[in-house]
Every structure is written in C-alpha cells, then in structure tokens.
Design a protein that fits this description.
about 80 residues; alpha+beta; 4-stranded mixed β-sheet; 4 helices; globular
Length: about 80
C-alpha cells in the first residue's frame, strides 16, 4: 500500500469524513494538522498545486484532492486499486 498523507484541521467535517473513509478501507495514513500553522498550510498549498482548503489528500505522490474527490474515487471503483498501489 502506498504511503497516504492527509492535511487536516481538527474541526473540519470534511477531514473527519475523509479519514473515516480511509479507515474503513484499512488504510493507514499520516495526518498533518495545519491548525494555526501557516507554514504547514503554505507547504500543503505548494504540494497541492495551490490547494488551500482542507483536506488535501495524497496517495503515494498522487494528489487526490479533497474529501469530495476521495469519495468520487470510491464511487467510481477507483479507490481500492489506488490504495493497492
């Protein structure tokens, strides 16, 4: 399984939903909180090609996007193969 990184904020409902979906798949992930950390948020935005909102999700080096994008992959049947590497 490729490494998964998710940038989050603690009170973000979309972050909570995205993490719940990943957990339901048995996927371990590294969570980087950008709560009050402008440098971490800037680094996230650079990595996410300007994406400033959370969550920003990466599977391996692929930028998946946010919560809606992650759920769209699941609905399309593309999330499991991506998680499998």
């Amino acid at each position: 399984m490729p490494a998964i990184t998710i940038y989050t904020k603690s009170t973000c409902p979309y972050c909570i939903q995205a993490k719940a979906l990943l957990r339901s798949k048995g996927a371990a992930f590294d969570e980087i909180s950008v709560d009050g950390d402008s440098e971490a948020q800037k680094a996230m935005a650079v990595r996410a090609n300007g994406g400033w909102t959370v969550p920003q999700i990466f599977i391996g080096e692929q930028h998946v996007g946010g919560c809606d994008d992650l759920h769209a992959l699941e609905r399309a049947g593309k999330l499991d193969p991506l998680l499998a590497g």
